[in-house]
Amino acid sequence: MPFDSLRSLRARPPLVPQLPQGPHYGILAEFATPADLYHACERVRDAGFKRWDAHTPFPVHGLEKAMGLRRSPLPWIVLVTGLTGAAIGFGLQWWVHVKAYPLVISGKPYFSWPAFVPITFEVGVLFAAIGAVLGMLGLNRLPMHHHPLFRSKVFERVTDDAFFISIESWDPQFDPSATRKLLESLGARSVELLEVE
Amino acid sequence: MTSERDVVALTPEQAAIPPGHTWNRLPVIGAAVALLGAVVCAILGVGNPKQFFFSWLVSFLFFLSLALGGLFFVLIQYAAQGGWGIVLRRIGETIFVTLPVMAALFVPLLLGLDDLFEWAHHGVTEHDALLRWKAPYLNVPFFLIRAVLYFGCWSAIALLYYRGSRGQDATGDPGVTARLRRLAGPAIIVLAITQTFASIDWIMSLTPHWYSTMFGVYFFAGSFVGFIALLSVVVVAMRGVGLLDTVISAEHLHDVGKLLFAFTAFWAYIAFSQFFLMWYANLPEETIWYKARLEGSWKAVSILLMAGHFGVPFFYLMGRAVKRRGSTLAVGGAWLLVMHFVDLYWQIMPTLHPEGVRPSILDVAAFVAVGGCFVAAASWFMRRQALVPLRDPRLAESLAFENV
């Protein structure tokens, strides 16, 4: 079936993957201070969890190291889109001035590359900036209009004064009671098991 | 909390050149090399004074621009109240405090004003209307007064900041930092104006009928790239011989690399803007300067500058790992130092050799003579106190610095 193969081509990890283990989205632990969160992240990282995240009201320096995050591929996206933009900008001018509509401008040759530099630069920057924004949104799976974490009442304080770790239930290491015990032992102020829908 | 390196204080031993270290001999080595260069200059220069003065001018401006770039580097950190670069500041200070020495190295050029500058030829204003019109500015007495003024301003600022920082090592008075911060803004303005006019006097007026309104900023861009390139090479060399290796981390190298990358792009932006407007307008009085540099073998140097002072280092320094590793950063710095020299050579030498590139043994001799003095002076100042401003109020911040 052609439509099925098309659909499988477009298939990507769903935003909320199917839950193999019961009705939970995952587990949410609340911490009182950035330091508590930082050290808890180090332990969660060392415990081998992969599908988890930390949530803070403000950037906590060095948290990406405590979480063991690898570096974002975004710079490569920006480089490729930027170079593509520069090539398009230069190519467009070459096509206009040399092929499509050659005009003698102030006695200079049709292919006067120095005149092409500002627009090449500008289109390169434009594409790089668009690549950065769209790449960031794509890598973050944004825009996302709803997330199971929003069902938690405590989680509302994530933009105010509380620090959270969420571990998703499809992480191979996840176990409702053992993971809860781990997070409690790390000094969590509250631990909550979240339903999916 | 977040730092893997919980260094918040330094012992003086960590920030000093240990007794018996090879770097203690640098002033002597520099002076010996300078003497050798000076002897060769004297022997060969007598037979070919014009070549000697042009070669000396290139080398003098190369090392002068490094010192001026160092002065700007320190001033801008005071003005912006920067914290990360405190551990690098003393290196900048020992480089810019060579400015009074550079004043002495300017003196030989005074013997060759007639060889260097067309406007200084006797009776030239009688036949040349444009030079007659410019004579109120381009005349020997006013030229000398301006040179005294430039070196006076630079030496005053350099000694003020060097002594203030050195004094703070002894007293620990945080008021020194506050006072030097207040003075940094005015000092940057003085530096910008004097550096602009110095570049007009010493480089642009070699072609006295020509002018560029952005020549000053072009010289500044080159000088700052040159200094940051020198800084990266010096820092990596120092770490390699066990100086400051526990103090200056990959985080500091990373930021030096970022500055080098950014100002390489800035130099290209200024250099291209200067060329672009003249090329587009195509007025003979403006294009004459570029015409000389786009003919014969000078054209190859122009292309080398485009690729070597911008294209290659721009992509080389773009990546993060290159800037954080000492060896790769130093390769980029050394390359850009060479390109900075080529840039000055390309600005100055076509006046003497319009027919094409004519390298001379005097180019090497003058470089060795001026460079030997520069290294001797900077390393002598480096030995006089700690390699890091030990009691700067922001030292702890700089030691613990990490890129986000």
The most extensive interface between chains reads:
A-B, 20 and 14 residues
Number of helices of chain A: 6
Quick one: how many beta strands of chain B?
Answer: 0
Any low-confidence stretches of chain B, pLDDT <50, length ≥5? 1-6
Average pLDDT score of chain A: 88
User: What profile does the largest beta sheet of chain A have?
Assistant: 4 strands, antiparallel
Q: Helix share of residues of chain B?
A: over 70%
The fraction of residues in strands of chain B falls at: under 5%
Count all strands of chain A and give the number: 4
Poorly predicted regions of chain A: 1-11
Overall morphology of chain B: globular
Structural class of chain B: mainly alpha
| Radius of gyration from the alpha-carbon trace of chain B, in angstroms | 22 Å
| Neighbour order of strands in the largest sheet of chain A | 2-3-1-4
Give an overview of the whole structure.
The complex is a heterodimer of chains A (197) and B (404). The longest helix of chain A has 27 residues, at 74-100. A 4-stranded antiparallel sheet of chain A has the order 2-3-1-4. The model of chain A is unreliable at 1-11 (pLDDT under 50). Chain A has 6 helices and 4 strands. In chain A, helix 4 (74-100) packs antiparallel against helix 5 (113-139). Chain A has 197 residues and is of the alpha+beta class. Chain A has helices spanning 2-10, 34-46, 63-67, 74-100, 113-139, 176-185, and strands spanning 24-31, 52-55, 163-168, 190-195. In chain A, 23% of the residues are buried. Chain B starts with 25 loop residues before the first helix and ends in a 5-residue tail after the last helix. By secondary structure, chain B is an all-alpha fold. In chain B, helix 2 runs antiparallel to helix 9, helix 3 packs across helix 16 and helix 10 (215-240) packs antiparallel against helix 11 (250-281). Chain B is globular and about 70 Å long. Chain B contains 17 helices and no strands. Mean pLDDT of chain B is 94; it is low at 1-6.
